Amino acid sequence: MKELTKYICVYCSSSCAIDEKYFSVARELGREMARRNIGLIFGGGMVGLMGETARAIHEHRGEVIGVIPEALNLKGIAYEKCDQLIVTKDLRERKATMEEKAAGFIALPGGFGTLEELLEIITLKQLRYHNKPIVIFNVDGFYNGLIEIFENIIKLNFAKKESRDLYFVADNVTEALDYIENYQPKEIASKWLTHVNQD
Description:
Elements: E1 6-11, H1 20-35, E2 38-42, H2 48-59, E3 64-69, E4 84-88, H3 91-101, E5 104-107, H4 112-126, E6 134-137, H5 144-155, E7 168-170, H6 173-181
Parallel strand pairs: 1-2, 1-5, 2-3, 3-4, 5-6, 6-7
Helix pairs in contact: 1-2
């Protein structure tokens, strides 16, 4: 197997009932990651966008690491073709393992679990536990509402305007992967707001 430059963690939906356009983007992302010699770290599932991304990477000779809690390590749920499948005791250990091994993070569209993972990895960066690139992949405007909430949080001084630097919003696969590959860590400003944030 060819030497990998890095592994990227992809957070995404486990639903199989979503529109085909999301599966198409997941396949494109997996294909391009493999082409760029980037490995995948993901939640270890064979269902939804998780499985679609993993299969696309494997179809193009890329490498896949799955991280799945033991309660979900079930036939028909776990992606058994992972090059490495790490079974954790719970969701918290799963997230910590993915965070440790990943060089960056991409959030494809997803449900409550995807949002929870995305918000935690942004918060950990805000608190300076890591300084890795985070991409919100805004497929067909999926994350417009969330980005609007983020902007309102900043506008009302629940976060600093520098918080926008914690993540990058991408509209396509090229933007998402270019950002991660060209990422230059910047000093992360203290999160604490002790006075009015003047724009």
